[in-house]
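Duplicate of #3305? Posting structure anyway:
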């Protein structure tokens, strides 16, 4: 895999080399008691810089994350045995990537609280293998879009007003190709790439949609 970074200005102070980005973290498989969900920061070398795999969830009244942009992942199943197993299972269920599609082992970044859900989320990272198939929507009932976010996109944001866990509030958002990245996922990625941010640790409030609308 080509692991060279972008030749231009790269936001943040994290390494630009792909391998160095993931090797900062240990190969660990924490027990499922560590967190209630797990996500994966999947990285690849794009044409000019490192890119991160993101999804936009399908609009579903019963889904509290409906319509939100996030990292591939989901809730722990009691049969998983470890958070790493949860992360790999969700990766396949959402974007059709399997363990063999990753270059190396999952690296464990940390567990972080998702404010809206009052839920700790285990965060992993991995490199996409050179010969891996393109990520795709494995379940259209859950995922509406799959796309790659360039690292440099995190350097710019704009204020938007959203209903949050603290009420109606102005938050910072990264806008990329019509996708709106804010809240938990934006904070996680800014921290991962060591991009300075003043984002508050608040999350969106999800109101179930009426079947009449």
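Output from current build:
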């Amino acid at each position: 895999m080509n692991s060279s970074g972008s030749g231009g200005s790269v936001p943040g102070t994290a390494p630009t080399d792909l391998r160095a980005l993931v090797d900062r973290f240990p190969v660990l498989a924490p027990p499922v008691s560590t967190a209630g969900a797990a996500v994966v920061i999947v990285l690849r070398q794009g044409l000019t810089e490192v890119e991160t795999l993101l999804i936009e969830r399908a609009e579903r009244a019963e889904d509290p994350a409906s319509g939100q942009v996030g990292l591939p992942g989901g809730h722990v199943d009691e049969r998983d045995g470890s958070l790493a197993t949860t992360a790999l299972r969700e990766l396949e269920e959402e974007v059709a990537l399997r363990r063999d599609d990753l270059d190396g082992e999952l690296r464990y970044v940390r567990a972080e609280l998702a404010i809206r859900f009052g839920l700790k989320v285990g965060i992993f990272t991995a490199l996409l293998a050179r010969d891996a198939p393109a990520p795709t929507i494995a379940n259209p009932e859950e995922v509406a879009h799959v796309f790659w976010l360039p690292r440099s996109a995190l350097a710019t944001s704009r204020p938007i007003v959203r209903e949050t866990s603290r009420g109606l509030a102005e938050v910072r958002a990264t806008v990329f190709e019509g996708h709106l990245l804010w809240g938990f996922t934006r904070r996680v990625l800014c921290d991962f790439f060591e991009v300075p941010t003043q984002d508050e640790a608040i999350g969106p409030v999800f109101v179930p949609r009426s079947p009449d609308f």
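Confirmed duplicate; merging threads. The longest strand covers residues 102-114. Residues 83-95 form the longest helix (13 residues).
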